[in-house]
Sequence to fold (181 residues):
Amino acid sequence: MTAVYFTTDPEANALLERDPFALMVGLTLHQQVSTEKAFAGPQILKERLGGDLGAASIADLDPDVLEAVFREKPALHRFPANMAKRVQTVAQYLVDEHDGDTTRLWSDAATGDEFMANLLAVPGFGEYKARVTIGVFAKHYDARPNGYEAFLPDWPSVVDIDTPEDLVDLKARKKAWKQSG
Fold:
């Protein structure tokens, strides 16, 4: 396992390093907000929920309660209602299909193809997000079923963040990549 520097908050990064579900929540939130905001979300959510951040507990929450938690100031996401629903849907999927264990997304996969298929089955995960997720879990949790390399992103992404400085550099690398393509 390698250190995570997706936020400027050491406590939030530590949660992402030790809790695959927290990392999955961050990956779910990682759209239309900064990397820092998306990946700080799991720590803030955990605090607002009184310290319990698990797939089963999120899946079992009253949706209105979860939405209210997402809307608390400052809001957890630019689109708090939609993202509360999305996080709860992902949590419910993990409970229903993987007994609430995020690691089963890769441990139940004998090949990279199966890992990719597992991620594409996660509600709201398309090819882009699934490939970034493979890269993040391969790097930080040794999630490396045979052939996973074929699915690693070939564009600048959070997978490239190895140091706190890389977090700052990522925006510039993404912008340059988008302009070149």
